[in-house]
Amino acid sequence: MLNPQNPTADSVPAGDPLITISICTYNRAAFLQKTLAALLPQLAGDTELLLVDNASTDSTPAFLAGLAGRPAVKICREEKLGLSLARKTALAAASGEFVIFLDDDALVQPGWLAGYQKFFSHPPNDRLGGAGGAVEPEFEIPPPAWVWQGTGCVPEPGQDRVCAPGDNPWGCNFAVRRAAAIAAGGFNPVLGHRGNMSGAYEEVELLDRVRRAGYEVWWVANVGVRHFIEAKRLRLAAQLSAAFRMGGCRAVRRLDALPGARQRTVFTAGRVLIAPFHCLLNVLLAALSFPFRGGAVTARALVHAASITGLTCKLVTRTFGR
Fold this sequence. Notes:
Elements: E1 19-25, H1 29-39, E2 47-53, H2 60-65, E3 73-77, H3 83-93, E4 98-102, E5 106-108, H4 112-121, E6 128-132, E7 135-139, E8 161-162, E9 173-177, H5 178-183, H6 202-212, E10 216-219, E11 225-229, H7 236-256, H8 261-289, H9 296-320
Parallel strand pairs: 1-2, 1-4, 2-3, 6-10, 7-11
Antiparallel strand pairs: 4-9, 5-11, 6-9, 8-10
């Protein structure tokens, strides 16, 4: 494996490429092969592919070792578990001016890389700090009625546009200007997935800091991906666990946005007082609505209660714990 601080000379294109495509992966060898099967035919010219193995224990290291000799492919390993940590390693190892982050279970659509190349080769202005494209879910099985199936904000076909505040690309298909992301401090290691545990908002939080530094984030048309959703992620227990973890990630973002310890303490105390009643209302709603709409209202209420619980627990541990 290559050391991100000392990649071999023949693993990268001559000169700095315009784009590095980074895929961070953990124990997803089968998915990664499908992702690369769709991506590799699109690679050409001023593009580098950077594969970061995030402490995988399955066949991923052996699979990546077989790719190590390919031109314009760079491979490194991040031993500490966590998607944000792996993405920070990718920022340090990348050579491209722009780094596109693609999930290991996302399938790029025809023209995906060409669309990014066109956009980054002729950026709308010199304040471009980040960009992203459409994401469509691809479910392994038909999802239950209570599972949210939205795709986020998707740009209109043929229309590139600036993302409004609070309007951000999804983490499985977004890009940053490498220098701007590093100057902003990179990814927050407290956020994001960690192994098989769900997480979120690491890309949103970074893009917010990039914006505050004076850059813009854009939606790019016609650079869509299809994101694979495993059947096990559609079970109620998995949804509750994910909601708990994502609630904790929201708590980190809320606290980090407050200016001082006093404000964080007051905010946490207020949420702790409200949370039991908020959770109780959702549990009561779940119980009373169980016979109706196939349990959809019940499931969503329980997911909401799990999110509130995760947010409250993280607020307490971050504010009053070590």
